[in-house]
Design brief:
The complex is a heterodimer of chains A (about 400) and B (about 160). By secondary structure, chain A is an alpha/beta fold. Helix content of chain A is about 35%, strand content about 15%.
């Protein structure tokens, strides 16, 4: 029977950081086992598994099954850039909504510690020194560095600079202050890769990677996994009071890709598809940005966080700088953004991120976030975007843990 | 032996035999060496400019080949020349890059007429005191050096007007 309502029954993330003694299967299994235990269920209850891993081996889902339980259920291995985790989550949600299953498991895992610069092309070595046109652009040499930059820090730097050119007010210092906020938030999150507060001066005088993003304004490459158990509303009714009380309702689950835009042919356009996803998510959830108690958004770089205030409708169009200046996105503000510390300090193990940010929101909606609890949080939004491009948004609502 | 050196002097290999040179084969000399653009959408003659594949139906432009227009799904394209001058609408100064990529360099997006173009901003100090959003820039070429055949690779960038 097709389900109208879907809930998160159990959800967990591992500590993000360096895990030299664990491979991706170990990390994924750790998160999956923890999510099952959190939901009070076992692999025997799962009717679908969706698993995401971007940089490693294929068929991660089957490897996870061999690690924690093989029952013959359908496995979907998903890959969708930085939206991979959100896509795994949504795959299970769609299965439940379609009535194919009433309970399922979504897992995202990545090992990225020490991965260095992502997206960069670098040099290809050849035996002979000869200009030979190759590839879709008939290029005779790698274009990274010769025709703009392929690396992520510079790509997202341009995203923020473009916003500044359009609306004004976006300075190096402003972007650094966004980073200062998130590093400050991270001090309360024991699962973050980095939990040290950083001063504005420390951030601005850190190693420049791609102006205006210094090293501490870039997401941290690290290892980690996150997993969630999802359940239909009907099935949830048969479970215990405790399970029902802690369940978090999925009010909206949205995935978009780039609609055609002139400029997105040369610089990824992270704005249009996020605006599209936000509009659809608010419509599906029947809530607006003014109803949100907290937001975890995809701050892969400080320059990205600014534009997503606007893209997610947290401020008026063009008003992202004013929104930040008002203090709203601080944990003490009107609409706290990235109280986990964000990707800049919590870390960004790519395929885990789109479930880990949902975990953060659920943690608050269940009133279990301890020192960093946003008091009275009832509705939250989790956003991820991967190039080029996929955007996932989930809007979540407490079942009444307060 | 590189095929470029052999020019048109090859058999067509259609009979399944190994290719062998036929007729008179002359090595390419440095005097007549070609200038080879970094990418196929950079044209050097009569003066350096960029070309795009434009959808004949809706006017959307692409720097690579498309089976159908990503905007309107039509399948006819024509080659169009782009204006060589434009406005810098975004940039970054890259100081940390993959091995082999010289830094610092300025990467940017230049609006040439209605078309956004990706490229480096060159012939300017790579710092935010000199590179400014909204500045006017124009297309220029840069040498990538010569290969073993004496052919010169030609790149492009945008310089302040």
């Amino acid at each position: 029977m097709a389900a109208d309502d879907v809930y998160i029954l159990g959800i967990k993330m591992t500590k993000f950081g360096k895990h030299p003694d664990k491979d991706i299967v170990d990390l994924a299994a750790e998160a999956a086992m923890a999510a099952l235990a959190d939901g009070g269920v076992t692999m025997a209850d799962m009717q679908i598994l969706a698993a995401g891993n971007l940089m490693g081996r294929g068929a991660i889902g089957q490897a996870i099954q061999k690690q924690i339980g093989q029952t013959g259920i359908p496995v979907y291995n998903v890959s969708n850039a930085c939206a991979t985790g959100a896509t795994a989550l949504r795959t299970v949600i769609m299965s439940i909504k379609a009535g194919e299953s009433d309970m399922g498991l979504a897992v995202g895992v990545e090992k990225l510690a020490g991965a260095g610069l992502l997206g960069a092309g670098g040099v290809t070595k050849k035996d002979k020194n000869e200009w030979t046109p190759e590839g879709r652009y008939g290029a005779i040499a790698p274009i990274d560095g010769r025709i703009g930059t392929d690396a992520m820090p510079g790509t997202f730097a341009q995203v923020g600079m473009e916003y500044g050119h359009k609306y004004g007010g976006a300075s190096f210092e402003l972007f650094a202050r966004i980073s200062e906020k998130n590093h400050g938030h991270s001090t309360l999150n024991p699962l973050a890769a980095y939990t040290k507060a950083m001063s504005l001066d420390q951030i601005m005088s850190d190693v420049m990677i791609a102006y205006p993003n210094t090293r501490s304004m870039c997401s941290a490459n690290c290892d980690g996994a996150a997993a969630a158990v999802l359940v239909s509303g009907e099935k949830l009714k048969t479970l215990s009071d405790e399970q029902r009380r802690r369940a978090v309702k999925v009010r909206a689950s949205i995935l978009t890709s780039d609609p055609w835009q002139e400029a997105c042919q040369v610089l990824p356009d992270v704005n249009t598809l996020t605006k599209l996803a936000a509009a659809r998510a608010y419509e599906q959830a029947g809530v607006g940005p003014e109803d949100l108690d907290l937001v975890e958004l995809h701050d892969c770089f400080a320059t990205a966080e600014l534009v997503h205030y606007d893209n997610l409708g947290l401020c008026d169009e063009g008003g992202a700088v004013d929104f930040f200046e008002s203090g709203a996105p601080f944990r003490t503000g009107k609409l706290p953004v990235n109280v986990s510390g964000g990707l800049q300090s919590k870390g960004h193990p790519i395929a885990a991120t789109g479930i880990a940010n949902v975990w953060e929101v659920c943690h608050h909606l269940r009133n279990e976030a301890g020192d960093r609890q946003i008091e009275g949080a009832r509705i939250g939004l989790a956003h991820v975007i991967g190039l080029a491009s996929a955007c996932g948004i989930h809007i979540l609502e407490s079942s009444g843990a307060h | 032996m590189p095929s470029r050196w052999l020019g048109d002097g090859l058999s067509d290999c259609g009979n399944g035999n190994a290719c062998t040179p036929i007729g008179n084969v002359t090595p390419v000399s440095t005097e007549t060496a070609a200038r080879i653009p970094l990418v196929s959408y950079l044209r050097l003659e009569p003066t350096p400019h960029l070309v795009a594949n434009e959808c004949t139906s809706c006017g959307a432009r692409y720097f690579d080949r498309r089976n159908a227009c990503a905007s309107c799904f039509a399948t006819e394209f024509r080659s169009v020349d782009l204006p060589t001058e434009g406005e810098l609408v975004s940039f970054t100064i890259v100081t940390y890059a993959a091995p082999g990529v010289p830094v610092p360099f300025v990467a940017g997006v230049v609006k040439c007429g209605a078309t956004s173009v990706r490229g480096n901003i060159v012939k300017i100090a790579a710092d935010p005191e000199h590179v400014k959003l909204g500045m006017r820039v124009r297309l220029t070429t840069t040498s990538l050096g010569t290969d073993d055949n004496g052919a010169e690779g030609i790149g492009f960038g945008f310089e302040p007007v």
